[in-house]
Design a protein that fits this description.
It contains 5 helices and 11 strands, in the order αβββββαβαβαββββα. It is α+β, with helices and mostly antiparallel strands. The strands form 2 sheets. Strands 4-3-7-6-5-10-11 form a 7-stranded mixed sheet, covered by helices on one side. The radius of gyration is 16 Å and the shape is globular.
C-alpha cells in the first residue's frame, strides 16, 4: 500500500468521524510525544447489539455479541503487522495478564494519545504484561505508526478484514466501520477482569484504572 493510499484511508475515516484533523504521527518520537489534555471517560458503555456509544453527543449503534467482565476471551482471528493471522487468545502474552486497548483509528489524535499512553505511562507493567492495541487500520498503517512513533512494546493487531473482532465482542460500529474505544484487562486464564467502553468516542478510556487492575492481578498471582 502506498503512502498516498494510507493518507486517503486515514483522511476518509477522519472525515467520517468528524474529528478535527488527523494526527501527525511523523512528528512523534516516543517519550517526546506531546500529550494533550483530553477528557478521560467516566463510567462505561455496554458492548453489544442494541447498545450505542456517542460521538460528540450523537449516538452510534454497536453491533455484535457484547463482552462483559467475567467472560472468557472469544476465539477470533486478527492480522499481525507481518500479515500473518493470529487468534486473540494466542498472542505472545498467552498465559500472562494482558491489557487490550481498542481504538477507532491510529490516525486520529485521541487514538494516537491513547496508544502512546499505553506504551509510555504503564509504570513498568510492559515488563510483566502484554500490551495490545487493536484497530481497523491496515497492518501496513499499524506498522508505519509503530515505527514513526517509536513504539516497540505494544503488540499491534488489525481487524481490517471483516471486523471479526469487533463483531465478536460487540464493539463494531457499522456506519463508519470502526471499533468503539475500549480498554480491557485479561488475566492469565483469558478471563476479562476489567472492561471500559468509552461512552463518548472523543474521550480517552481510564488507562490508569486498567494499569491498577493489571498490577493487582500480577500481585495476586
Amino acid at each position: 500500500m502506498t503512502a498516498t493510499h494510507r493518507m486517503i484511508i486515514g483522511t476518509t475515516l477522519c472525515m467520517a468521524l468528524g474529528f478535527a484533523g488527523c494526527a501527525s504521527t511523523g512528528n512523534s518520537n516516543g517519550t517526546n510525544f506531546l500529550y494533550k489534555n483530553y477528557t478521560v471517560a467516566g463510567g462505561s458503555a455496554v458492548a453489544g447489539e442494541g447498545r450505542s456509544v456517542l460521538f460528540e453527543g450523537k449516538p452510534l449503534a454497536l453491533s455484535g455479541t457484547g463482552i462483559k467482565v467475567g467472560d472468557s476471551l472469544r476465539e477470533v482471528t486478527l492480522t499481525q503487522t507481518d500479515l500473518s493471522p493470529i487468534s486473540i487468545t494466542d498472542t505472545k502474552g498467552k498465559g500472562k495478564v494482558r491489557i487490550i486497548s481498542v481504538v477507532p483509528s491510529l490516525d486520529t489524535p485521541v487514538c494516537e494519545e491513547q496508544t502512546h499512553y499505553l506504551s509510555e505511562k504503564n509504570k513498568g507493567l510492559d515488563k510483566m504484561v502484554e500490551l495490545v492495541t487493536i484497530s481497523v487500520d491496515t497492518p501496513f498503517a499499524q506498522k508505519r505508526f509503530a515505527k514513526e512513533a517509536k513504539i516497540a512494546n505494544v503488540t499491534f493487531l488489525s481487524d481490517y478484514r471483516d471486523a471479526e473482532f469487533g463483531k465478536a465482542y460487540g464493539l463494531f460500529i457499522n456506519g463508519p466501520h470502526i471499533l468503539a474505544r475500549t480498554v480491557m484487562v485479561v488475566d492469565a486464564n483469558n478471563t476479562v477482569r476489567y472492561l471500559q467502553v468509552s461512552p463518548e468516542l472523543v474521550q480517552l478510556p481510564d488507562l490508569e484504572k486498567a494499569f491498577t487492575v493489571a498490577k493487582s492481578l500480577i500481585t495476586a498471582g
